[in-house]
Amino acid sequence: MFNRIRRLRQVAAIASISSLVAGCGVLSSDSTEDQGPIMVGTTAAPSTLDPAASWDSSWELFRNIYQTLLSYPSGASAPEPDAAESCRFTDNSNTKYQCELREGLTFSDGHTLDAKAVKYSIDRIRKINVNGGPAGLLGSLERVQVLNDREIVFHLNKADATFPFVLATPAMSIVDPEDYPADKLREDGTIVGSGPYTLSSYDDGKTAELSKNDRYNGLAERKNSAVTIRYYQDSPTMVSALRDKKLDVAFRGLAADDVVDIQADDDDELQMIEGSGTEINYLVFNPKDPMAGKAAVRKAVAQVVDRPAIAHKVYRDTVEPLYSMVPKGLTGHTTGFFDDYGDPSATKARKILTEAGISTPVKLKFWYTSDRYGSATKAEFEELKSQLEDSGLFQITLKSRPWKDYVTGYQKGEYPVFGRGWFPDFPDADNFIAPFVGEQNALGTPYVTPRITEDLLPNSRAQSDRANVVKDFEDAQRILVDDARLLPLWQGRQYVAASAEISGAERALDPSTIMMMGELSRKTSW
């Protein structure tokens, strides 16, 4: 029923978001004036308002309220100066990266944004050092040097051609030293930034009201004066609000059923924008767990899991089976898990367990977040449980928590096996390997693999031409397959559902699929 050869086909490069727009809105002009705030719905609520704590969906809000030295203008696949006027490597070894700030920058409260504030923001991330937080992105940074009010130099401890991409992530948001303590997180529920919008009101897990920041000085365009973001627990409720005109746009967490229904809908009042995506979904095995820590158990799970069945039965083919941590379309992608395990086989899995002296059924507890990735996540884990238990080799207990509590749990190492999704920090294979390995990583679960962290990644980062890094990433993925500590499941596409009156949704997603709210506007002519 599932054609694996078809599923393993190569797709076009996904470094930039390309979109296919349904509906007649492509013939419409945009308005810089709107009728009240644009109402946006998502299931991805922030876990924190402080950039020093976040390596997750909180970035969506950060991109629109804070500012970074570099960011992505609409349609770009490489970062360009934002708070900075210019940035460049000043040496041939890619170890000194210098930026000059725009003149006259201020935070939304009127305080000066200068090179000292940038240094303060970066140093603060490393000093607070939240487990599973963004400090893991700064592994190549040795020190930050302020030359004067507008010039700053980042001294790297090794060549890192990806460092400009790191500076463009919302994790590197610039904060006001007068409002953010140097040694602890800010927890008063407010934000002071210098980005396109200010946070005028915030109800944790429910709404975020954004207003245009009149002090903003950067590259982002704003085609509306205000945006209200509403956070939902599930896709059906969110889509119902869209159909009832309580929302203008819905994205992040749209269930497959809702995507397919809107695509098939003859109603001209809604449009579905579909874009190529580099989102991936995968399982993480905790090496400290008595059973998940055994390589044979992990490999037996890998041998049983049927990815095409998950893609078809749960996601109605709105996602693609994935056999590598690096998604299709990026330099360095392989099909290592398919090459090693091929078709799902309970017989081969039993042999793996028997040869390791492991009795069956193997009891494992699988954890997933009940709200972060949409309502299909529960069905996905129920399908995984069914596949594994039908093999006769496993006994699976499913557990879930809301995202905010879920993050705390995996950072503490509480889960034997847990699900994660990954929206890239930047469109490079490095960002699908580096965040998950090393003593400090985005999973809060140490994964010590010196061959990757001390050899392959440094070698690849010395190459400015990313076409020269294929061998390094193939070798890194070979190690990931052999360890089976991370088990890729599927690669997604990007879907945005919007009222036919809304323009700009096809331009709003940056290369890391974060929505730039300023691109959204209401149409004024038909």
Automatic annotation (TrEMBL):
<feature type="domain" description="Solute-binding protein family 5">
    <location>
        <begin position="79"/>
        <end position="442"/>
    </location>
</feature>
<keyword id="KW-0732">Signal</keyword>
<dbReference type="InterPro" id="IPR030678">
    <property type="entry name" value="Peptide/Ni-bd"/>
</dbReference>
<dbReference type="Pfam" id="PF00496">
    <property type="entry name" value="SBP_bac_5"/>
</dbReference>
<dbReference type="InterPro" id="IPR039424">
    <property type="entry name" value="SBP_5"/>
</dbReference>
<dbReference type="InterPro" id="IPR000914">
    <property type="entry name" value="SBP_5_dom"/>
</dbReference>
<dbReference type="GO" id="GO:0043190">
    <property type="term" value="C:ATP-binding cassette (ABC) transporter complex"/>
</dbReference>
<dbReference type="GO" id="GO:0015833">
    <property type="term" value="P:peptide transport"/>
</dbReference>
<dbReference type="GO" id="GO:1904680">
    <property type="term" value="F:peptide transmembrane transporter activity"/>
</dbReference>
<dbReference type="GO" id="GO:0030313">
    <property type="term" value="C:cell envelope"/>
</dbReference>
<keyword id="KW-0813">Transport</keyword>
<protein>
    <submittedName>
        <fullName>Peptide-binding protein</fullName>
    </submittedName>
</protein>
<feature type="signal peptide">
    <location>
        <begin position="1"/>
        <end position="22"/>
    </location>
</feature>
<comment type="similarity">
    <text>Belongs to the bacterial solute-binding protein 5 family.</text>
</comment>
<dbReference type="GO" id="GO:0042597">
    <property type="term" value="C:periplasmic space"/>
</dbReference>
